[in-house]
Write a structure and sequence with these properties.
The chain is α/β, with parallel strands linked by helices. The protein is built from 15 helices and 13 strands.
Length: 378
């Protein structure tokens, strides 16, 4: 297959992992919504096992290229793998998009341009380090920030904070911030689903359900959130708590819930899939992340009309849509967070059915954002 002779514009997506997180959800949602008669995505898999939703991607017309790339097994072997891949496949792609959390490894972008691919993009999805980079990685990040404009045609980000984190100051100013969209109809407040959710988990009409969703890891800061829950429980006798997610901190999260004597009022659910019911069933959503590229779960929660609490200075301002969204600084501590959460929950003046229209008006429907994405290529 040669891209130039094909009627379909093919884009190689780099940076998809085996965990269905924010980056994967964004790219997958875009792929579902774009006009696939004109644009098609292909995916690079460097893991040796399927990437997130790989079967779904294949069913939509994508190809998945397996290319295990491990720099720790030798830099020469790593670069040879990239060269061999592009020698075999470069003519099949019109564009390459590198979806990144930082600029430590962007050789796929550099070699894409070297092998004649005309449109090379870097898409920043994050604004902080999950693991602090090593000294060598810091040097690579510095060098890549300084030089990537030589082989990257477009810098794109999910927020200005994500652009500022990943790119140089000069490139960040020129970066195009694209609204991360969601399938808004999937998150509309539904009173019937609210009742079903609350019945399923034993909540009474008087209970106040404080919830959060996200990977159980240090970035999402669930251990701090449990401290917040503990403070809330001391002030709100009707408080109940719901955490949805999975990840390496699950055991420690369960231990801390036990330490705080919250076992009878705090649920940890790892396999809950009906997020319309989840957001409809909650009374407030809390995300105390230490960093976020955007925080897609906040867009989803607001689509269901939920009041939200999020970290000031670490969650981008673009995440706020509804008037009942409050930013609180992490350094203010769990007690202040608890006070804001209780106050936000008591102020129930916002009609939750208006959440969907507000999110759509803010340009966060995937039908709108997918068209913006298409214009990067067509």
């Amino acid at each position: 297959m040669v891209a130039e002779k094909s009627k379909v514009y093919r884009i190689l997506q780099v940076g998809m992992s085996d965990n269905y997180g924010g980056t994967e959800a964004t790219v997958y949602s875009l792929y579902e919504k774009i006009d696939r008669s004109q644009l098609q995505f292909d995916f690079l898999n460097v893991y040796g096992h399927p990437i997130a939703k790989q079967d779904n991607l294949l069913s939509l017309g994508a190809r998945v290229f397996d290319l295990p790339l491990k720099r720790r097994e030798g830099y020469h072997r790593y670069l040879s793998g990239i060269r061999n891949f592009y020698q075999a496949h470069a003519k099949e792609f019109n564009a390459v998009v590198c979806n990144v959390q930082c600029l430590d490894q962007i050789d796929m972008a550099r070699f894409a341009k070297k092998y004649g691919i005309k449109n090379v993009l870097i898409y920043s999805h994050n604004a902080g380090y999950g693991i602090l980079p090593s000294r060598l990685a810091k040097i690579a990040i510095w060098w890549n920030k300084k030089t990537c404009h030589h082989y990257v045609d477009h810098c794109v980000a999910c927020s200005q904070m994500a652009a500022d984190f990943v790119f140089s100051k000069k490139d960040a100013k020129k970066a195009q911030v694209i609204n991360t969209g969601i399938e808004t109809s999937h998150f509309l407040f539904d009173s019937k689903k609210r009742q079903e959710f609350r019945s399923q988990f034993g909540y009474s009409p008087e209970d106040h359900v404080y919830g959060s969703a996200g990977r159980f890891d240090p970035q999402k800061n669930q251990l701090f959130l449990i401290d917040v829950f503990s403070e809330i429980a001391q002030q709100d006798p009707h408080a109940r708590f719901f955490l949805s997610g999975r990840g390496p901190l699950e055991t420690r999260i369960r231990e801390k819930i036990k330490e705080k004597n919250l076992e009878s009022v705090c649920l940890v659910i790892t396999d809950f899939l009906d997020y319309q019911a989840f957001y409809s069933g909650l009374d407030i959503f809390i995300l105390p992340s230490v960093f976020e590229g955007l925080g897609v779960v906040l867009i989803e929660a607001q689509c269901a009309g939920l009041p939200c609490l999020a970290s000031a200075g670490t969650v981008p301002t673009e995440a706020k849509i509804l008037p009942n969204f409050v930013y609180v600084h992490l350094q203010d501590g769990p007690k202040v967070w608890a006070e804001h959460a209780i106050a936000s929950l008591k102020d129930n003046s916002f009609d939750r059915l208006l959440g969907l229209a507000s999110v759509r008006q803010a340009g966060r429907d995937i039908a709108d954002t997918s068209k913006i994405y298409e214009r990067l290529f067509l």
